[in-house]
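Summary of Year 1 activities. Much of the first year was spent building the evaluation harness for sequence design. The harness presents a backbone, in tokenized form, and records the residue chosen at every position. We chose the following record to illustrate the format because it has been used consistently in internal testing since the harness was completed.
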């Protein structure tokens, strides 16, 4: 469409471009982050509403993460990993990440050892929780705060 035709319609090319850019910005998703309450709701869903007990689970994380884009963690659960007593699943929850449930690992007695390790991205300084669900339905929890410094996705 020529400038002359646009002028007859009452709009200039500049007005159309500005309007199109404004609509595009409104359609972009906002960066969101979960809240500790949403993380607690995720934990309640994992445990069937039961409060996880302390003990049997060890969560290893750095106290200070210089780069929030890659934070290594390890979770170990004290379990004989027998048919009668084993870890069914391990869940890692980062309270204030956009999606608080960072990872879920499913285990069986055949694993022999209830230990997992991985890297995760942390949006900012926050508490990370590990939940272990046992074969008898009980759940255990460990938590640690990780301070994210420069390089994190939100600091």
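For this record, the design step produced the sequence shown next.
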């Amino acid at each position: 469409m020529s400038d002359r035709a646009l002028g007859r319609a009452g709009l200039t090319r500049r007005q159309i471009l500005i309007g199109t850019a404004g609509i595009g910005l409104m359609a972009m998703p906002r960066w969101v982050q979960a809240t500790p309450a949403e993380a607690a709701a995720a934990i309640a869903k994992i445990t069937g509403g039961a409060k996880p007990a302390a003990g049997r689970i060890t969560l290893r994380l750095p106290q200070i993460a210089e780069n929030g884009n890659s934070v290594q963690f390890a979770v170990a659960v004290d379990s004989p990993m027998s048919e009668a007593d084993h870890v069914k699943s391990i869940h890692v929850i980062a309270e204030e990440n956009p999606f608080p449930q960072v990872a879920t690992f499913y285990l069986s007695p055949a694993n022999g050892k209830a230990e997992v390790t991985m890297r995760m991205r942390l949006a900012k300084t926050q508490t990370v929780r590990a939940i272990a669900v046992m074969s008898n339905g009980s759940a255990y929890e460990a938590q640690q705060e990780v301070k994210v410094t420069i390089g994190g996705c939100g600091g």
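The radius of gyration is 23 Å. Quantitative recovery figures across the full test set are reported in Table 2.
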